Model the fold of this input.
Amino acid sequence: MKRTQLSIVLAIACLLLSPIVSLSQTAPTPTPAQTPADQAAQPTPSSSKPTTSAAPAAPSPSKDNQASKDAGKDTDKDKAKDANAADSAANSGSNSKDRLFFALPNFLTVENAANVPPLTAGGKFKLVGRSAFDPVQFVWYAALAGISQAENSEPGFGQGAEGYGKRYGAYFADGTIENFFVGAIFPSMLHADPRFFQSGQGTFMHRAGYAITRAVVTRDDSGRNVFNASEIFGSAVASAISTYSYHPHPGYHPVEGMVVPYVASDRTMKNTASVWGSQVGYDTITFVIKEFWPDVRRKMKKQK
Done:
């Protein structure tokens, strides 16, 4: 089941990353140094007539008061901006409205944030809940279930409306369970930060490598880089729950009372490992997309 989802994400990643390779920033062209000939050609100020400077007029008290008031207003504005910036940094992710490709929720990505306050356990569950039950997710899982039924993956689910409903429920459960274990349950227990912190610096290969390593490296609540046990073990537990709870079981027949070929069980360690590997691979590709998506988004907005 996860192979269908992984193939779709791979296709999207190829479409996204192909133009990004050409987005390397070019250094500004330095201004050439002036040659002695150019300096000689420049006009020099005339010194034939001495100039006399008038004595500065004494500042008016009313002007001083007005200047003080203006300075006070500027200081208040600066303080307000600093307070808004602090609030924005403190709530990074919690109020995010960003979406990948302007559709899929991207609430767990933090841009331009070197020092961000840690999330509470409740904040982690809140962010994951916003993403997991976003209306777009229902459409996304519906599309994946349709593709899975067309490919007849996991034939034990059968065909028709009943088979589609089972596939839809399985995809929705797979995504939701994995999101909560990787983004909320394990991070809360291990004091890890489930957010993706965009690098935004360096070459394309450097940034892509950074994004790929986020599958095994993450931040903890104190801001240190630690092993991403939430991703590795959380996705493994979610894969085991998915495989051994609601996937087709041994001897499952789509229609009772009919002689149909035996349908092999999907509840095996091999399938669990396959689902786990596909899920980690899917998340890794998603990290790469999250790293470069802000660049693509800004470029698209500038072209409008």
